[in-house]
Amino acid sequence: MGRAAFGTLVLILVSILWGSSFVFIKLSVENISGFSYTFYRSLIALAALTPLVLAKLVKSSLDARSIRWGAVTGVTYMLGLLLQGIGTAYTTPSISAFITGLNTVHVHIYTGLIERRYSKLLLLSLALSILGLYLVTKPVGGFGFGELMVFLGSIAWAAEIILISRYSTRGVKRLEFLYGVLLPAITLAPYVLFIEKEVNLTIETLAYLTYLALICTLAATALQVIGQRYVSEATAAVIYLLEPVFATLFSATIYGEKIEALGALGGTLIVLASAIAVLDEVRREKTSNMKRS
Predict the structure, then answer these.
(1) What is the DSSP string of 136-179?
(2) What is the CA radius of gyration of the chain?
(3) Ramachandran bin of 98, using left for φ above 0, alpha for ψ from -120 to 50, beta for the remaining angles
(4) pLDDT tens digits for 29-41?
(5) Which of 108, 172, 175, 193 is least surrounded, with the fewest CB atoms within 10 Å of its CB?
(6) pTM for the full predicted model
(7) 79, 153 contact by CB (below 8 A)
(8) What mean pLDDT value characterizes the chain?
(9) CB neighbour list of residue 258: distance below 8 Å, 6 or more residues apart
(10) Where are the chain's structural domains?
(11) Dihedral of the CA atoms 14, 15, 17, 19 (nearest 10)?
């Protein structure tokens, strides 16, 4: 299996994990604020990682550089979570999913204008994926405060994808990097604990946050670092648009939501867009290997 194919499979798994998150995000922010949601989700993940980090510290094998890189990335991660959480409380999950998916456009603009490496196949995959995303999510409504917050969050998510692509190829240590990613969210503690004070953190909400922290944050981000080591940020961004497709499938399985014909067509277009982006990635990988040999 080639590097690009392996990276693709890993990132598809990431999309599956993220696809399971939207319902739990909506359920969480119905009971607590976006600030509390971001803080407690990150705090739970940090609590799970702290014993492992302390063990490496005792053995003097802790990589401080990876923690710093993670913290830089963590600022974008925190903003993405926070803005998405705040916005989702004021809009529908479908609109939130669609606007969040626009991070793909931001990443492609970065790749084309800043990195100066873009292709017609990538442009085709972008067009198909955005059309497919629209058909899957069927966003209906105006553009208000909630939509603005989610849109700003999509910019933060795009920055996170770009930074992970950059650091994943520099020999980053995954444990330390993950820990660093979560650290910026601790800065929300004073606001959550001393200004909000009254937090409706029920057992159900805690269960939602624990799933989001352990599965959709720790597991998904660790896999994201692995996958983006072998796949460019532009291709990764298209693959991540499989997230709302899997979200729809989860909703259909768990809640019995019917998948309409347009939704099925949209999902097919996103799968096709992902395949086109991956084929372009494989083509560039083969060209690069031929030049080295």
Answers:
(1) HH---S---HHHHHHHHHHHHHHHHHHHHHHHHTTT--HHHHHH
(2) 19
(3) alpha
(4) 888 888 898 899 9
(5) 193
(6) 0.82
(7) yes
(8) 86
(9) 252
(10) 3-292
(11) 170
